[in-house]
Design a protein that fits this description.
This is Pyruvate, phosphate dikinase. By secondary structure, the chain is of the alpha/beta class. The protein starts with 10 loop residues before the first strand and ends with a helix. The structure holds phosphoenolpyruvate and magnesium ion (MG).
Length: about 900
């Protein structure tokens, strides 16, 4: 079809069963353009047209409007000429006019984010010609008013003046409807439409100071440039940022001959899906409108009808419409136009088989002829995603590897947490945005204090930030909202572990604990007010939003089984309690990669003993307090070992600085002083003594165990005795004792010596033994660099990428929330490195650590237990680095299992 030789094409034509492009050219032609080309070549009736490439959009940004138009002018003119010859019409001709549509089309679909203009090429003369040619004045004038409306909005900026304002054209239409006593757009008479055109043009002149452009070529260039501009419009930028699509991609522009769904009762337009995008059910479905154009169906001006009879009957049941009424008033396309329906049904089947995925299509019926305007892989819910992939596999349309690769890992989340009813979300009022720290949906009444979470049956704990003391309240609350903190803040880590919905770092919230109020801009929310959190998007919503229970369908289990068939890298879990361990095991965890023992000390009955230990001034006093803690810890470990019977359990020795355990509030300090029979001053002195300028870099990790060896002794004893007790009951325990935060070999050696001598002493006492490993976390850059030496001593490594990220970037985990969002917004950082592993920098240390470790111990077992262990791109990186297992919170286990399989499959492609 190309006529211009030796020039890199910027414009690709399609139509009449031919095409310059194909569906593999999405990057250049955008998704819509590539698929239009492919459909045309497949012989599906698409209106002829052409695509201006995404590269031109980028050139436009660099070179400006004038230069770019010069660059593509000849090709566009040639392509318009092609359409003219296919259609037998002429652009701008007043007797036999060609009108075109101008649509955006990025390489990925961004529904509703960019602009479209229909019926372009219309003016006062063309409308008369069109009316005469079609013998349909109503249609011609309806198309004209639609054109001015769309072109005015998209190209000439005729938008509502403010958020609360009505669209200026809608206002004129509403006015006329009122005057004429009618309700719907299709009730306008020809004279009404003529009046509207006149009034629309006057409104344009009044607002912009310019006449509405009458030259079709001026109109075309105006629309093309407007589509390019819409790539950088607010909506598109927001959507791009949300999905991580780079600005360089640009959008293509698709220009096509108009086909008209508004030519009368033998015409119409609709949207359809080859399968149900909500449930994945294999039923063809969709909606249509008779005598309507493009946007009418989605815009909801008129209530659309169902395409299939089955869909129509299902709809009627919900709408409580009797069958006889349904068949008359709301007939399906299948009943109303059976031949068209059959043809559409054939195309949907052809296209789904061709693309081997669920398709979302748009079509228009022009005077009894069907045209397909678009097809794309349809967006779908997590549940539908899983069902469709597994069904396509069973139907033989895709193979196992393709089924696994068809799953978007993060979308599995939706299957694991209660979700908001999508219908309710449509009308929800979003008041602020935070980090989507832990997915899920929560609706409840605001409480500001953890110990008041019980106050309401459903509460949302709203805090500036949370501390370990808030644990119980966090557990009771339906959701957690914090003004500060990042993705690895305490609230986020704990919430993910609990599978509890959490939004953190919502900077717009101003919380006043004293007054028990929350300010968001001008609005004040009191304790007890209802709010809702969408943990998957970070949206904070006013009032209640209905939720629906997630369905763990059979296909989900099948998918997980299939993942394990291909996954090489193992998936363990981070679990601190038997309950979490059981949940994770049900989700398929193959062991525990991290038990944070400190969480056990925070529980009500333990914190006292822990505080006594910390406040003790002598080793004897400390040992006495630790003795009290021993049985409690041992019982914890027994519970966890039992839950993980037969699987490895990595238990990390105490990590956080001691100041986290002592009370900071006067009342609690007094209570403690009384209980311990010491003075309040003594308690205060100890708290002051433990205060650190930078606790994250302070007296924590193995530094505690090395300065207070009796803590390591007690913890080792609890682990080993628990394992021996269970061994006697026939439970297979595989403890892996892990030393945190080492930077030097000696730090490890000192801890290892305490662990092994304590274990040996117990073995002697009990005249029994178990196998166990002693390994270390690699979370300090120096440890990664010294990995060869450390591996000579350690049985295993586990990368603590939370601390490794903190220490490699020099960003405090607790404070980074203040500047990271700005860094991301400004493009200084692509994303939050605490959420997505920085493969370039921190990843290098993971690689170096693994390689050096294995240089002295080739079979060294290496895992990762930072939050990145459940993040898809980081999990894939781990596989490619030769890591043996990732460990993540229970609710991320299925995701990690899937990604482990996907990563392995990708290397075979
Ligand atoms: C880490 O640093 O990655 C880690 C798992 O330990 P924590 O988050 O408990 O510091
Ligand atoms: Mg750590």
């Amino acid at each position: 079809m190309k006529t211009l030789e030796n020039v890199k094409p910027r414009v690709y034509s399609f139509g009449d069963k031919q095409a310059d492009g194909n569906s593999a050219m999405k990057n250049l032609l955008g998704g819509k353009g590539a698929n239009l080309a492919e459909m045309s070549a497949l012989g599906i009736p698409v209106p002829p047209g052409f695509t201006i490439t995404t590269e031109v959009c980028t050139e436009y940004k660099a070179l400006g409007q004038y230069t770019v138009i010069q660059m593509i002018k000849e090709e566009v003119e040639q392509s318009i000429a092609n359409i003219e010859s296919f259609m037998g019409t002429k652009f701008g001709d007043m007797h036999n006019p060609l009108l075109v549509s101008v649509r955006s089309g990025a390489r990925v679909s961004m529904p509703g984010m960019m602009d479209t203009v229909l019926n372009l090429g219309m003016n006062d003369e063309v409308v008369l010609g069109l009316a005469k040619k079609t013998n349909n004045e109503q249609f011609a004038w309806d198309s004209y008013r639609r054109f001015i409306q769309m072109y005015g909005g998209v190209v000439l900026g005729m938008k509502p003046a403010s958020k609360d304002d009505i669209d200026p054209f809608e206002e004129i239409m509403e006015h006329l409807k009122e005057k004429r006593g009618i309700e719907l757009d299709n009730e306008f008479t020809v004279q009404d439409l003529k009046d509207l055109v006149y009034d629309f043009k006057s409104a344009v002149k009044k607002r912009t100071g310019q006449d509405f452009p009458t030259n079709p070529w001026d109109q075309l260039w105006g629309a093309v440039i407007a589509v390019f501009n819409s790539w950088n419009g607010d909506r598109a930028v927001y959507y791009r940022n949300m999905n991580g699509y780079p600005a360089e991609w640009g959008t293509a522009v698709n220009v096509q001959a108009m086909v008209y769904g508004n030519m009368g009762d033998n015409s119409g337009t609709g949207v359809c899906f080859t399968r149900d995008a909500g449930t994945g059910e294999n039923v063809f479905n969709g909606e249509y409108l008779i005598n309507a154009q493009g946007e009418d169906v989605v815009a909801g001006v008129r209530t659309p009808q169902q395409i299939t009879k089955l869909g129509s009957q299902r709809w009627a049941k919900l709408a409580k419409v009797e069958e006889d009424q349904r068949a008359i008033k709301y007939p399906s396309l299948e009943e109303l136009m059976p031949n068209i329906f059959e043809e559409l049904n054939t195309y949907q089947d052809t296209l789904e088989k061709h693309y081997r995925d669920m398709q979302d299509m748009e079509f228009t019926i022009q005077d009894g002829k069907l045209w397909i305007l678009q097809t794309r892989n349809g967006k779908r819910t997590g549940a539908a995603m899983v069902k469709i992939a597994m069904d396509l596999l069973k139907e033989g349309m895709i193979n196992e590897k393709e089924a696994l690769l068809a799953i978007e890992p993060n979308k599995l989340d939706e299957l694991l947490h209660p979700v908001f009813d999508p219908k309710a979300l449509k009308t929800a009022s979003v008041i602020a945005q935070g980090l989507p720290a832990s997915p899920g949906a929560a609706t409840g009444r605001i409480v500001f204090f953890a110990d008041e979470a019980k106050k309401y049956k459903n509460s949302i704990l709203v805090r500036i930030e949370t501390s370990p003391e808030d644990l119980e309240g966090m557990n009771i609350a339906k959701g957690i909202l914090t003004a500060r903190g990042g993705m690895t803040s305490h609230a986020a880590v704990v919430a993910r572990g609990m599978g509890k919905c959490c939004i953190s770092g919502a900077g717009a919230l101003k919380i006043n604990y004293k007054k028990r109020i929350l300010n968001v801009g001008e609005t004040v929310y009191q304790e007890g007010d209802w709010i809702s959190l969408n943990g998957s998007t970070g949206n904070i919503i006013e009032g209640k939003v209905a939720t629906i229970e997630p369905e763990l369908s059979g296909e989900f289990a099948e998918l997980m089984k299939l993942s394990d068939k291909y996954g090489v890298m193992k998936v363990r879990t981070n679990a601190d309690s038997p309950k979490d361990a059981k949940i994770a095991r049900n989700f398929g965890a193959q062991g525990i990669g991290l038990t944070r023992t400190e969480h056990m000390f925070f529980e009500q009955d333990r914190i006292k003993a822990m505080r006594e230990m910390i406040l003790a001034d002598t080793v004897k006093g400390r040992k006495q307090a630790l003795k009290e803690l021993l049985p409690m810890q041992r019982a914890d470990f027994e519970g966890i070992f039992e839950a993980m019977d037969g699987l490895a359990v990595t238990i990390r020795l105490l990590d956080p600085p001691l100041h986290e355990f002592v009370p900071h509030q006067l009342a609690t300090q007094k209570e403690l002083a009384e209980e311990m029979h010491i003075s309040l001053q003594a308690v205060k002195n100890k708290v002051a003594e433990l205060e650190e300028f930078n606790p994250m870099l302070g007296h924590r990790g193995c530094r505690l165990g090395n300065t207070y060896p009796e803590i390591t002794e007690m913890q080792t004893r609890a682990i080993v005795e628990a394992a021996l007790n269970l061994k006697a009951k026939g439970v297979i325990c595989k403890p892996e004792i892990m030393v945190p935060l080492i930077g030097t070999v000696k730090e490890f050696e000192f801890q290892e010596q305490i662990i092994r001598s304590t274990a040996n002493a117990i073995f002697k006492e009990r005249n029994d033994s178990i196998e166990y490993l002693v390994g270390t976390m690699i979370e300090i850059p120096r440890a990664a660099l010294m990995a060869d030496k450390i591996a000579e001593k350690a049985d295993f490594f586990s990368f603590g990428t939370n601390d490794l990220t903190q220490l490699t970037f020099g960003y405090s985990r607790d404070d980074a929330g203040r500047f990271l969002p700005i860094y991301i917004q400004k493009g200084i950082l692509k994303n939050d490195p605490f959420e997505i592993l920085d493969q370039e920098g921190v990843g290098q240390l993971v690689k170096i650590g693994t390689e050096r470790g294995r240089s002295t111990k080739p079979d060294l077992k290496v895992g990762i237990c930072g939050e990145h262990g459940g993040e898809p791109s980081s999990v894939e990186f781990c596989y490619n680095t030769g890591i043996d297992y990732v460990s993540c919170s229970p609710f991320r286990v299925p995701i990690a299992r899937l990604v482990s399989a996907q990563a392995a499959i990708k290397t075979t492609l």
